[in-house]
Every structure is written in structure tokens, then in C-alpha cells.
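sorry for the late reply, my laptop died twice this morning and i had to redo everyting from scratch. anyway the thing you sent over, i finally got around to it. pasting the sequence first so we're on the same page, its 116 residues, then the predicted structure underneath. double check i copied it right bc i was rushing
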Amino acid sequence: MIKRLTIAAALLAVVGFAEQKTVSGYLIDKACSADALKKGEKVAKEHGVDCALMDDCAKSGYGVYTSDGKFIAFDTLGNKRAMAALKTSKKKSDIQVTVTGDVSGDSMKVASLKLN
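ok and here's the structure:
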């Protein structure tokens, strides 16, 4: 039994541990996130939908910029949900979202994404 627990613990350490979380913040593309990380929340708040939907920005993927100044990148499904949300948003900027999913480090496997 102890041997099995040791093996399971070792596998978790190697694979990493993802934790289900709900995160709120600004929806922004990964290409523009570096600017927000450097300059702060105002950049994420003012980031425009038009920019996020540009080819290069869309290809970079999406994520959420959080109030504590972090950027959490989405998985492929999360990127599709983010693009759909951006296309249906009536706002031009200040795109606030609540996202739930498995977070591991600075990335998230998105289970749900909702515009606020």
C-alpha cells in the first residue's frame, strides 16, 4: 500500500497537479498580455476587441489578466470559447470574464467562460 502511494505521489509530481478554480479578470490575447504584464491592469482593461480578433493576436491564443497582475493562458477549447465571446461582445474594450477550469501554473484547461 505504501509503495502504491509513493508511486502515485511521484506521478503527481512529474505530471503536475491541476486545481479547479474560478478566476475573474480581463480577457486579452497572449500577444498583448506582455504589455499588460509590464504596464499593469489599465492596459488589459483598455485592450480592444478589434485587436484581440486580429489574425496575429487570435493565433497567439487568449487568457485572463487577473487583478493580482497575472496572465493565465487558455487551452485550445478555452481559446475557442474566448473568440466566440469576443465576437458576440457588445463592448469594444473592458472585456471582463469569469472563467472556471483546471489551473496548472500559468495555464488553464477551461471548463466554462462567461462574459461579465
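The chain has one domain: 18-115.
thats about all i looked at so far, will dig more tmrw
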